[in-house]
Amino acid sequence: MKTPILETDRLILRPFCLEDAQEVFECWESDPDVAKYMFWSSHNDINKTISWVKKELRKIDSDDWYRWAILSKETRELLGTGLIYLEEEYGKFEIGYNLGKKAWGFGYTTEAMQEVIKFAKEELGIKEIMGRHAKENPASGKVMVKLGFTYIKDIPYECSRGKNLYAGKEYILKL
Ligand SMILES: CC(C)(COP(=O)(O)OP(=O)(O)OC[C@H]1O[C@@H](n2cnc3c(N)ncnc32)[C@H](O)[C@@H]1OP(=O)(O)O)[C@@H](O)C(=O)NCCC(=O)NCCS
């Protein structure tokens, strides 16, 4: 299914377009603090971000990859991104998210991902979603708990394309 436009009280979630690349780069892709607990590494070159956006554009019609740009409804400013995708190793759908630093702490991630989960349940018929985060990153764990996820077990948690390994936690949400 084509990634649809979703809406919450304060946010618009829409598929990316190529014109987003500069804002994506400035908002989070060039920031090592945002990348620290992500599987990707931060970008030091806008061309890496352009390639990333192009890769996302190729997945817009995919049935196992749904990624949104998260924007402020009021200002139309790009705040971050969230996704739900089929994690092949586990054979389960998993959520992921990050915001640019200046948007942290306003409850935006929880608000955006609640709508993503509603879409996953009602439109995709998904019955179970997994989530993982580094123990050193409690803000992400808080988001999962606020979304209704339940802690399952401790796991190794790879970041920076496998270059950094942290202690992590795995969660499940039954829908
Ligand atoms: C994790 C992240 C997405 C959270 O986004 P957010 O919009 O600020 O999240 P929310 O505001 O919805 O909720 C964050 C919660 O964590 C809490 N929190 C923030 N920093 C914290 C910390 N260091 N320790 C404990 N709790 C923390 C907040 O108080 C809030 O809880 P509350 O609602 O009970 O007050 C954001 O910090 C981010 O983009 N981080 C970098 C990328 C990343 O780590 N992504 C997740 C990888 S698994």
From TrEMBL:
Pfam families: Acetyltransf_3. SUPFAM superfamilies: Acyl-CoA N-acyltransferases (Nat). Residues 11-175 form the N-acetyltransferase domain. Gene3D superfamilies: 3.40.630.30. PANTHER family: GNAT FAMILY, PUTATIVE (AFU_ORTHOLOGUE AFUA_3G00765)-RELATED-RELATED, N-ACETYLTRANSFERASE DOMAIN-CONTAINING PROTEIN. This is GNAT family N-acetyltransferase. The lineage of its organism: Bacteria, Bacillati, Bacillota, Clostridia, Eubacteriales.
